[in-house]
Design goal:
432 residues; mainly beta; Porin; 18-stranded antiparallel β-barrel; two-stranded antiparallel ribbon; 2 helices; porin activity; signal; transport
Length: 432
C-alpha cells in the first residue's frame, strides 16, 4: 500500500513552463561539505487491527514502536563533474506487542512468533553530477511510478541500484534505473522482498533485476504528463502513463483532473506468486478534485480489466499510483470497478495553520476473486493531522488515521471485516 502518492494539486502547482536549458546546478555547487545536509526523522507509530467475524480465531493485531530514519546527503565537489556521497541509517525499537498480537509489519518476527526487540540497517551511495544530470548508485529511496519504495510502516523500504535523473530542460524530468535489491520495511537482510509460489507455497527469490525508463513533462503551468516503462526479471513488464490538468476558476477556486493507467503483462513464472496465474491486464483511475477555499471535494473512478489483479510489490511497495489505492485496500482485483468520494479540510483558512482533516469512502464491485465474479468491498478512512508551525518543536506532527474495511468473499487477503487505527508522531530533526 503506497503512501507517497503524487498530489494532484501539488503537481499542478509545481509544474513549470517548458523552456530551453536553464542554469546548471553543478555550476552553482558550493562544495562537498558546504552543501551537505543531515537529519533524523523520529517516528513513533502505534498500529492495530481489530478483526471482525474472523473464522481463523485471530481477533486482534497491534504493534507499537519507535523508529529513527537518519539521512546524510553531501554536496557535490566543484568542477565539470561533481562527486558526492549519501547515507541512510535505520533503527526500529519495539515498545509493545506480543506473540499473539504481532504481525502488523512493524518488526521482524522471530522463529518463536515473537517480534524482534529492535532491528537496524545502514546503506551508502555514491553520486555523480554533470550540469543538471545526476547518476546515483547504492542504497536509496525511490519515487518513480514503476519503482517506488514504500514508507507506510515504522521504517521505509530501501532499494539498491543505479538511478539516473536528468533535468536539462525546464519542465522535463527524465529517469532511468537499474535495481537489483529491495529491502522490506520490517527486515534488514538483502532481497527481503519476495512472494510465494501459488502451487508450492515456497518463497521466491527477491528482486534480482528491475529496469525502467521514463519521465514527466510539463506542457504548461497547468498541464503535465508522465510516461514510464519497466521490466522486472522473471515477473512482468509494465507501462505507465499519467495526465494531470489543473483548471483555475477564481482566486480561491480550481479543478484538478488526474488520470493514471498501468498495463502489466507477465514475463516469467514468478509473477504467479502475486496472483496465481499469468498477468495481462490494465488498471486505470480518473479523479477530479474541486477546491474552494479551505474545502476540497474529490471523486474518483478506477477499473481493472484483463487477466489477473494489478500486481506490484517486488518492484516496490509504493508502485501503485492509482486513485483508489488507500489505507487498507487497493481495489485492484481482477475486473474490479471502484468509486471514491473524498473530502479534505484545511483549517489554515480558519486561523489554525497546520491542522488538516480528510475523510473518504470507496466502494468496489465485480471483483473476480475466490471463485466469484461479484466480489464486493468498501472502505471508509478518517485522517486528522496537526503540524506545529513555530517554536522549539516546529514541524513536530501528530496524526490519527482510522480505517474501516468490509468485504464479501475475501476480496482482500481473506480478511472480510476489520478496523484499523494508526497513531503517528513524527519529528524531523535537522543536524546539518
Amino acid at each position: 500500500m503506497r503512501v507517497m502518492k503524487w498530489s494532484m494539486i501539488a503537481l499542478a502547482v509545481s509544474a513549470g513552463t517548458s523552456q530551453l536549458a536553464f542554469a546548471s546546478a553543478q555550476d552553482e555547487s558550493k562544495g562537498f561539505l558546504e552543501d551537505s545536509t543531515a537529519g533524523v526523522k523520529l517516528r513513533n507509530l502505534y498500529f492495530s487491527r481489530d478483526y471482525r467475524n474472523n473464522d481463523s480465531g485471530q481477533s486482534r493485531n497491534e504493534e507499537w514502536g519507535q523508529g529513527f530514519i537518519g539521512t546524510f546527503e553531501s554536496g557535490f565537489t566543484q568542477g565539470t563533474v561533481g562527486v558526492g556521497v549519501d547515507a541512510i541509517g535505520l533503527l526500529g525499537i519495539k515498545l509493545d506487542t506480543g506473540r499473539g498480537r504481532a504481525g502488523m509489519g512493524l518488526f521482524p518476527i522471530n522463529d518463536d512468533g515473537r517480534a524482534a526487540d529492535d532491528y537496524s540497517e545502514a546503506h551508502g551511495a555514491v553520486k555523480l553530477r554533470i550540469s543538471n544530470t545526476t547518476l546515483k548508485y547504492g542504497g536509496q529511496f525511490t519515487a518513480v511510478p514503476v519503482f517506488a519504495t514504500d514508507d507506510s510502516r515504522l521504517l521505509p523500504e530501501v532499494a539498491e541500484g543505479f538511478l539516473l535523473t536528468s533535468k536539462e530542460i525546464e519542465g522535463l524530468e527524465l529517469n532511468a534505473g537499474h535495481f537489483t535489491r529491495l529491502n522490506a520495511q520490517a527486515q534488514t537482510y538483502k532481497d527481503s522482498i519476495g512472494g510465494r509460489d501459488a502451487d508450492t507455497g515456497l518463497k521466491n527469490p527477491g528482486l534480482t533485476d528491475a529496469n525502467f525508463v521514463g519521465g514527466t513533462y510539463a506542457f504548461t503551468d497547468n498541464l503535465s504528463t508522465s510516461l514510464y516503462y519497466s521490466k522486472v526479471e522473471d515477473y512482468w513488464r509494465k507501462y505507465y502513463a499519467n495526465v494531470n490538468w489543473a483548471l483555475p476558476i477564481a482566486d480561491n477556486q480550481g479543478l484538478v483532473f488526474d488520470f493514471n493507467i498501468y498495463d502489466t503483462k507477465s514475463d516469467g513464472d514468478r509473477a504467479r506468486a502475486f496472483d496465481g496465474d499469468k498477468l495481462d491486464n490494465r488498471a486505470f483511475s480518473l479523479s477530479a478534485a474541486y477546491n474552494i477555499g479551505a474545502h476540497t471535494f474529490t471523486v474518483a473512478y478506477q477499473k481493472v480489466s484483463g487477466d489477473g489483479d494489478y500486481a506490484y510489490g517486488i518492484d516496490g511497495g509504493g508502485t501503485v499510483y492509482l486513485a483508489n489505492s488507500v489505507a487498507r485496500s487497493d481495489f485492484n482485483a481482477e475486473d474490479e470497478k471502484s468509486w471514491q468520494a473524498r473530502y479534505d479540510l484545511n483549517f489554515a483558512e480558519w486561523g489554525v495553520p497546520g491542522l488538516s482533516f480528510m475523510t473518504r469512502y470507496i466502494r468496489g464491485t465485480d471483483a473476480n476473486v475466490d471463485g466469484t465474479t461479484n466480489g464486493k468491498e468498501w472502505e471508509r478512512d478518517i485522517d486528522i493531522k496537526y503540524v506545529l508551525q513555530e517554536g522549539p518543536a516546529k514541524d513536530l506532527s501528530f496524526r490519527v488515521r482510522q480505517a474501516t474495511y468490509r468485504s464479501s468473499d475475501g476480496v482482500y487477503y481473506g480478511s472480510p471485516s476489520l478496523d484499523e487505527l494508526r497513531l503517528i508522531v513524527e519529528y524531523p530533526l535537522s543536524i546539518l
